Amino acid sequence: MTSLVARIEAATPPGRDRAVDALRALAILGVVGGHWLVTGLVTDSGTVRGASPLTHLPHLAPVSWVFQTLAVFFLVGGRVAAGSWASARQRGVPYGRWVGGRLERLFRPVAAVLVVWALAAAGMLVAGVGDATVRALVKLVWSPLWFLLVFAALTAMTPLVARLHPLWPLVVVLHVDLVRLGLGGPRELGWTNVVAGWLVPYCLGALVARGGVRGRAGRWALLLGGAAAAVSLVLWAGYPASMVGVPGSRMSNLDPPSLAAVVFGLAQCGAALLLLGPLRRVLRRPAVWAVVAVVNLSAMTVFLWHQTAMIIVTASGSLIADGPLPGLHTVPDGAGWVLARLLWLPVFALALLMCWAAFRGYEQGGRRSGGGSLVVRGSSPERKGHARRA
Questions:
Q1: Which of 21, 62, 122, 314 gets the highest tally of CB atoms within 10 A of its CB?
Q2: Cα angle value 28/29/35 (rounded, 5°)
Q3: Are the C-beta atoms of residues 223 and 270 closer than 8 Å to each other?
């Protein structure tokens, strides 16, 4: 381990902003932890279905405020893409080559999970597993991929939106929600927010890349203003308290993104920007930086396979145990389930480590051919080579 830490430290370009890597790692791990905590698999009459403790324990909704960290991921994505595109233009790299390299790194590991689960679904159907069970499991694995499609679209739009102020898409979200929720407009109008809602943190990241929001006052304003707006919308405007989807609820803050989710995301972005300074100081320690670097090298693999890891543990438990295991197969309707689920998290992490060992090559192979690291600002070809070795 000492040798590995030393190699990572030596191979890291001096200009790499390690704190940005840390924010991405925290965002991915927050999504993973949130999914593991709020997603259960239960069996009804031989059919497996998904269930959420938030359905039975609505007072746990504030937990979703901690683990719904997608806004931070889009913030980092906008910052990195804007800086990368500016550097590519300076070097004369054409748009097609630039966007092709970034999307290849994004979708190469996606192909692996799609193929594996297509084969798994076919195998289960041939073996006689019910259609409803297969649909529930495949949906659990594939449904998080929606955000990658949005992220890919925004990445491709970077030359057009890199200088767009985040206030403009925020105004779009405000008016869409006013029409669809306040004036009884068509529900389909809400899908405009799928792009506009995530454009807000993405454009904020691009603004940061241009040198904006440098002062602590602006970052505190994002944190406190976004949090106050989100709380107000929940308390007085009828928005759900949960920042993730809850089965059976009348509406979701994420499907499509609501104004409450977007302003809450701004609060998270403000907190993330305030953390940059302290993170930079902490990440001067080679051992801490090595952990962050390793997570970032496999961030997509971790995201794509974390639900599969939970399914593997759940299925294995049902084969080994004589009856349903608390926190794994039981209905998530009480505090006992939550405590038991917390004890299962290390087992999920172990299963995810196995998936990572099996499939990380698809992501890292894509990075080697994609031409660059994920978060080096203004990276040169020499620095890219260092990043790939890291």
A1: 21
A2: 95
A3: yes
State the chain's maximal CA–CA distance in angstroms.
64
- Alpha helix ranges (H) inside the chain: 2-11, 18-38, 53-56, 61-67, 70-91, 95-126, 131-142, 146-156, 158-161, 167-177, 192-209, 216-236, 259-282, 286-297, 299-320, 335-370, 381-389
Are the C-beta atoms of residues 219 and 273 closer than 8 Å to each other? yes
Confidence of residue 323 (pLDDT cuts 50, 70, 90): confident
Angle at 191 (CA atoms; ends 185, 196), nearest 5 degrees: 110
What lies within 8 Å, CB to CB, of 335 at 6+ separation is 57
Q: pLDDT by residue (tens digit) across 333-377?
A: 999 999 999 999 999 999 999 999 999 888 876 444 333 333 333
Q: List the domain boundaries for the chain.
A: 2-389
- Of the candidates 253, 261, 344, the one whose C-alpha atom is nearest the C-alpha of residue 40 is 344
